[in-house]
Design a protein that fits this description.
Keywords: Signal. Helix content is about 5%, strand content about 35%. It is mainly beta.
Length: about 450
Amino acid sequence: MKNLFASVLTLSSLALLAGCGEDDPKPGNTPDGGDPQATGQDVSGSIQGDTTWKAGTTYTLKDYVFVESGTLTIEPGVTIKGGTGSALVITREAKLNAVGTAEKPIVFTSAQAAGTRAAGDWGGVVLLGKARINVAGGENTIEGFFATSGDTRTKYGGGANADDAHDCGKLKYARIEFAGYELAEDNELNGLTTGACGSATDIDYVQVHKGADDGVEMFGGTAGLKHIVISQPDDDGLDYDLGWRGKVQFLVVQQNGTVGNRGIEASGNKNDNGAQPHTVPEIWNATFIGSGRPAGTTPAQEGLVFNTGAGGLLRNVIVAHFADKAVDVDGTASAALWNAATPELSIQNTFFWSNKGDTASIPNAPNPKKDAAGNVTDPDVSKFVEAEKVLAAGLNNKVVDAQLTAALNLEAPNFAPAAGSPALNPDNAATPGAGFDTSARFVGAVGTTNWLAGWTAFPKN
């Protein structure tokens, strides 16, 4: 998000300080989640021990709520509203068990009245764990918070005792709406933020809608994502960095027409482009949709961007309607991952269509270097010609219309391919590997079954 309200900053800082050192939950954080017949319950401060938020009660977050220990269980159909300066943070000593159903999804939304809700009304959901991250010491403070001496609740990563199978819990059949905000440059909360969550974490059937910063950001770890919808974020759809190595299948990103930036922004470690482990998730069956707006508008709108030594193995993907670039391999460190004998950056069996209006090729994305005076000293540092590299023979990448039903519709989108679409031809798709749904022999996130139906929503405000 690009706007910062003083009230958000003040409330957020106070919440951090007020919550430090509390031994007991504040009144209202009862172990059983309160009276299930009640219409509403305010929640603030810290939660210790197993707690259940029950169906029949609407819970309103009044500030940063830290689950410090135990498991927070949220029953199907529960609505959680976020007030100004609030967020739900599951610390690395706790777990989340938020499992809704298609008929009764769990909804995290703004506390503002319907019709007045907007991106950035509250801070979103944060999951913190103990898996490896590629920073010195193996531990970090999650973005969106100011580091406070002695407060470990915003820390993630396991340091010397890192556990790549760490379990941050379950988040299934859930929507997160109108969340995310920026405390300072490069210090933002997103709709869903994970830090060092491990492979035992279960994130499946989750929609993040109209977030003020990124839809989902994965800071290191190995947590996977399945059946994820990121609709109309103000910045990037999926942002990942610091050594994330998760498995992803069935992912939709749809940008809005005014401020949406990148479908993927992939980063390694900005201070050490070669830091281990490398940032290399494996992504199958994804659809990235730009807004179709004219090229050259602000901000630039790009499909897939890989920088600072980040990679990714992408298969059976659609990238369409981005205003400026389809793919940008930005810098020598990420280019080296593509050119390696065993690539850690690779795109295969992917359809590109109408990126920068191009229906015959994909745009190149040179990375110029400038001196202190602003003069260009190298027109392309990475020396990576996207149109040649990405469309090279043998990768089975194509510039072709996937014929999606209504991918550009913001109010009632449909990402399923029309009958006869080349995306449904199994000859255009690779067979997913171990750990993935191997029956998904189609290109893009959706095949003949529309898994978004029934539990997603696309409200304006």
